Amino acid sequence: MENDAKADGTAADTLPYALAEPVAPLVRRVLARNPSPFTYTGTQTYIVGAGSEVAVIDPGPAEPEHLDAIVAAIGDARLVAICCTHTHRDHSPAATPLKARTGAPIIGCAALTLTDTGPRADASFDATYSPDRVLGDGEALTGEGWTLTAIETPGHTSNHLCFAIEETGALFTGDHVMGWSTSVVSPPDGDMTDYLRSLERLYERKQDTVYLPAHGPLVDRPHRLVRGMIGHRRSRERQIQRQIEEGRTRIPEMVARMYKGLDERLFPAAQRSVLAHLIDLERRALVERFGEDWHLREA
């Protein structure tokens, strides 16, 4: 994830790894021990349901400690679905071994494996992910006391889904919206045009009262955050245009100027997001490229 605040996460010995914690009505969280500059404190796996049937959202990395903690959190309940918001390797690899241990089907986003020769900064795609059922936009899963509805939100990845609990107003936002940073949008699969369109779609969903992201704290004022995120992205594209006006026509030059103080480990992610903005601006006939150089397009 692109992170303007340079967060590495809290010290590992103070965090509740491998424990199921209630975080919202019908929802418990199990935090995976995979903190990094891109995952914050780690991937948050969610257990949905308080009765005899539960679902798991974003099972996370296939680490034995994390898998054991998920199974312990499920307890005597029946796991009816293993759901993934997308297939980056910090989100979906545990789906296959969790299915093997529980017999539950993998239901959610489509499979996607992409080979990218560019400097990807986000986690690569999970080649082991094999869903039993792909959910389309608006399709629902049900269990005792809960209903999960899939919301298509491409942008961070082309196969990204959010999941809404219809009974409570909670929305699981994966990597599309996070409370601790902005999400990296990395071409060729990441698409800024789609990402902004998906943000607008979530902003229009007034029934969502809290966001539960895959990384970082819950978001209790979601529409204000999404409005700010849209404004941030529009401000960033204007900043990119100013960089070009001032003669910085290559992405590394722009990033060095625009992201002063950013953790150097996150520079590749910032470069990918700037590229995504430039591709969006190019589609709108506002800039054009000549090799590695970008120029404003004359009216």
Poorly predicted parts: 1-10, 117-122
What would CATH call the architecture of the largest domain? 4-Layer Sandwich
How many separate structural domains? 2
Rough outline: elongated
Judged by helices, strands and strand pairing, the structural class is alpha+beta
Secondary-structure element order, N to C: EEEEHEHEEEEEEHEHHHEE
Describe the structure.
The chain has 299 residues and is α+β, with helices and mostly antiparallel strands. The protein folds into two domains: 12-221, Ribonuclease Z/Hydroxyacylglutathione hydrolase-like (Metallo-beta-lactamase, Chain A, 4-Layer Sandwich), CATH 3.60.15; 234-296, Arc Repressor Mutant, subunit A, CATH 1.10.10. It has six helices and 14 strands. The chain has helices at residues 64-74, 95-102, 192-204, 222-245, 251-258, 267-283; strands at residues 20-24, 27-31, 44-48, 53-57, 78-83, 107-108, 133-134, 140-143, 146-152, 161-165, 170-174, 210-213, 287-290, 293-296. The strands form four sheets. Strands 1-2-3-4-5 form a five-stranded mixed beta sheet. Strands 8-9-10-11-12 form a five-stranded mixed beta sheet, with no helix packed on it. The relative contact order is 0.14. This is MBL fold metallo-hydrolase. Residues 42-215 form the Metallo-beta-lactamase domain.
